[in-house]
Fold Small ribosomal subunit protein uS5.
Amino acid sequence: MAKRERKDKRGGREEKSEWQERVVQIRRVTKVVKGGKKLSFRAIVVIGNEKGQAGVGVGKAADVIGAVKKGVADAKKHLVEVPLTKESSIPHPSSGVSVGAKVMMRPAAPGTGVIAGGAVRTVLELAGVKNILAKQLGSSNPLNNARATASALSGLRTLQQVAQERGVSVERLYSK
């Protein structure tokens, strides 16, 4: 996909990237210091290119815009490759864990759509998965659920990858 250019408010050129970003949560957090309470913001951001890559990041700053920018930079450092099938689903069932959150995912038939909730849905959509069944188990914390989803997606492998790792042909994997 070619990068498109557009003019920003000052008349300069700004490149439009292929990455989409979505803010999952913005929280106002306080730190108690000697002089009182210091306010800052925490932003949970998910980025993806809808072609099999997604990342989850967290940013903290004194203002919301700064927190989101830091979150995007952190998400780019934690990208996950997702092997997609022809039906835009995952190759096999998978589950991921992050702290107290567990996420279970199963491939779905074409036309099913993304059946998931909260941060899990956001990560799957930005990764480019179109047909999937997912369930959050345990914690409802959006950050832990997003990280558990990224963990589950990073553990996915295609038949070709498994055959290559074992040093056999794909046909041999089917025969017993």
